[in-house]
Amino acid sequence: MNIFKNKTNKGFTIIELIVVIAIIAVLSAIVMTNVTAYQKKARNAQRLAEVKSYATAFEIAYENNGSYPIANPSFCCLGSGYPGGKCYGGSISECSGTNDILKQWIALPFDNYPVMIYGSDYRGYLYIGNTGKRIDIYWYLEGANQPCGIATYSYSNISNNYTWCAYSKSI
Questions:
Q1: Cα distance between residue 136 and residue 161, in whole Å
Q2: Reduced to 3 states, what is the DSSP secondary structure of residue 138?
Q3: What are phi and psi of 51, to 5 degrees?
Q4: With contact defined as beta carbons under 8 Å apart, do 123 and 114 qualify?
Q5: How many helices (H) and strands (E) does the chain have?
Q6: CA 126 → CA 77, 120, 132, distances in Å?
Q7: Per-residue pLDDT at 54
Q8: Distance from C-alpha of 121 to C-alpha of 112, rounded to nearest angstrom
Q9: What is residue 44's predicted lDDT score, i.e. its pLDDT?
Q10: Distance (Å, whole) CA 127 – CA 74
Q11: ∠ at Cα 53 (166, 60), nearest 5°?
């Protein structure tokens, strides 16, 4: 009498387990790629909205004061809370006086997501305005050839991963 004759196999073979794990791994890779792309788009959309808020605040300041706020120093970062108080390559200070003027009209946004280009962190919005008659705001978007919103000019494909944008206005 064979005691193994009526025994049925219960469970999965090692091959079946490997196939299932491989399928799950492929699906996970597809999902993660899409999630990363959507995160970049969301950060870019946030940056564009923040730049538009700054541009609007500059226009309100101009209407109220007859000139744009003077940047002090002449190159400075809009917003506050940057690591070490520096943005745009880690060497530009925050615009304390300009920020004080602008926060009368908007909650000061700042770009807190690092944009690494050639080994330096270029997060933030660089403001150049030392005459009161012209404003220039510079920022980066993730990905080459991205639309820059209100920008008056841009340069795409910086480091093959970013788009440089600039908004300028003179009176």
A1: 23
A2: strand
A3: -65, -40
A4: yes
A5: 2, 9
A6: 5, 15, 16
A7: 92
A8: 10
A9: 92
A10: 8
A11: 100
Instruction: Specify the residue for token string 């538009």.
Output: 52
Q: Per-10-residue mean pLDDT for the chain, 171 residues long?
A: 60 90 91 84 92 92 91 85 84 89 86 77 85 89 89 78 89 77
Q: HSE (CB half, 13 Å, CA atoms) of 169? A: 15
- How much is the pLDDT for 6? 58
- Residue 124 CB partners (closer than 8 Å, separation 6+): 77, 78, 79, 82, 87, 88, 92, 110, 111, 139
Rounded CA separation 154/15 (Å): 53
Copy the structure tokens of residue 80: 């506050």
The gap from C-alpha 6 to its chain's centroid, in whole angstroms, comes to: 65
Q: pTM for this one? A: 0.78
